Fold RNA helicase.
Amino acid sequence: MSEEEEELGTELIAELYKPPALLPIAPLKDPLLYAIETFPVTIIVGETGSGKTTQIPQFLYKGGWTNDGSQIAVTQPRRIAATSVSARVAEELGCQLGQEVGYSIQFEDVTSEKTKIKFLTDGLLLREMLVDPLLKRYSVVMVDEAHERSLSSDILLSLLKKVLRARPDLRVVVSSATLDAEKFLDFFAPDDGQTVHSKTKVDYETIVSIEGRTHPVDIFYLSSPTNNYVEKAVDTALLIHNSEPDGDILLFVTGREEIDDAIDMVADRIADLGPSAKKLQPLPLYAGLSTEQQMYVFQKADQNTRKLIVSTNIAEASITIDGITYVIDTGYVKLRAYDPVLGLERLNIVPVSKASATQRAGRAGRTRPGKCFRMYTEVAYDALDDATFPEIQRSNLAPVILQLMNLGIQNVVRFDFLDNPPSALVVRALDLLFSLGAVDAYGRLTKPLGARMAELPLEPMLARALLNAPSFGVLSEMLTIAAMMTLQGTAFVAHDGNNKQLERARSRFAVKEGDHVTLYNVYQAFTNPAVGKQSPQWCRENCLNYKAMLKAVSVRKQLRNSLDRMGIQENTLTSSDAIRVGGMEVTERVQRCLTTGFFAQAARMKSDGSFVAVGGDTVLWAHPSSLFFHRKVDWVVYHEIQESKGKVYIRDLTSVEMEWLTEYAPEYYKVKQR
DNA sequence: GAGCACTGC
């Protein structure tokens, strides 16, 4: 873990600290233990600051739920939560982290034989189910933050419902925000005619509510709607600054562009404040910033200065900042939507849900009473959805379906989802998995190919290309490229918006074959003991994100281990493979290997520099971060396609020969030609 | 021609 991350962690611990005996949950200890003893499923409705995440596992531990040698699992949607909460609980129990209390996240397993309470990400518990489908090592599984409806927590809850049928002794605790409790209750209620001991919903599960312990937050609405919420929000910030007592301001907008706009507007307006007036310091906050740039929001402002943090949704749950007294909520958020017809992702600006609005307002009341100004009317608030649209209904489902099949779910269409994904998403995903050879014509997972693809922590197309790498003699190269792809474009980072400098840095690694090999070069240079030396300084000089590069190193190591376990090594190259690839340059073999995974995402550049997808008529544009934004090329395969402001961008492009497409995917292209 | 909301294995 980097120093910065640790600082973020302690930040969170400080935030969470309340003497356990004074927490609102303390008097509920016995009722809670009774509920969990009595009912297989307990829904906990607990507001922020109730102490549910830190205290319930301790109640269970002290209540004897681990005496038979089993463990208590507590899942979190985010890594930072798993690590910081486990540190808190270890301290309260007076043990060393990794002993009785531990955590497990990708790349880091801080648990031991002695561990009784284990915090882990929900995605990792899903992975554990591959080797332990009935979760036999756990007596209780607590799924925290289930109301966020993340892809993996949704799937986890469905699987837990199944596991309960085989394991009546298992206890499931679901922690949720107020508005969705009934939904979870209904979901876990045994269906009529099933074998859950003919119990009714009433004696099968229960809801326990815990009060929050945050300070009161006064909510203010607009009296009439605005058509420019960013401008209105800036007006409000200035109004707060000029008329309200001390306390920093947190303003929620949807993305980087709005953040820049808001900060420019504020800069213009504070020029009018006069030199003697109290200062207002606008600070941006979004995930794309480097860790250093993000740290500014945690630093105490200068004397006589009020911070105005202009943030994306990252400040809603992922990052907690001390000293916020005022929240301005524009009422919008950018959400991903997957278009199964065009097979592309869109980022849509949509109104937030009531749950989101409540969470945002709560950010003003963490340390003292606060105020929240909503840039919409009360009527508009009443019309908001209760909860955020579940991720499973707006994602590319190919990775999820592959994983479910590998867990032995034969018929994904009949799987018991909390909310069913639209059938078009399921069909599209199955089509893709079929064309990649992960699923056969009968809709069954293929072995070993499909199962191996499912085991790799990569999207199916990339997994397929990586598994083909030995036959091209480029396993080492493809491991690096796959690891770099998981960074999703975060390898390069501009210093203070200096894009020219970034482009110069990128060009130092660039090769004509395209973005994949360029990123390979970046990794090679970073890890070369004579060049990058894996050092933060070298990254800074080359506009690279140090933390992201370290992640690539970890991912590559993990992928290498997975392939080793599967018995896949470079020397598994057969003699016919060797003949086929003999005499080819390494780069060409890499290009061909990528084609075997990404053949379905091929496009050809037209004379005007735009692209047209194979078998389609959508006009595509190389993303400005691609080498082919400026350079000419003929055919390419691309890693990602995304619509933004009405234009469709493709990212991470590699040039290929048209013949390779039909050579490596004859079935796919035969069908398309008809 | 000009740009990734946020997570996670």
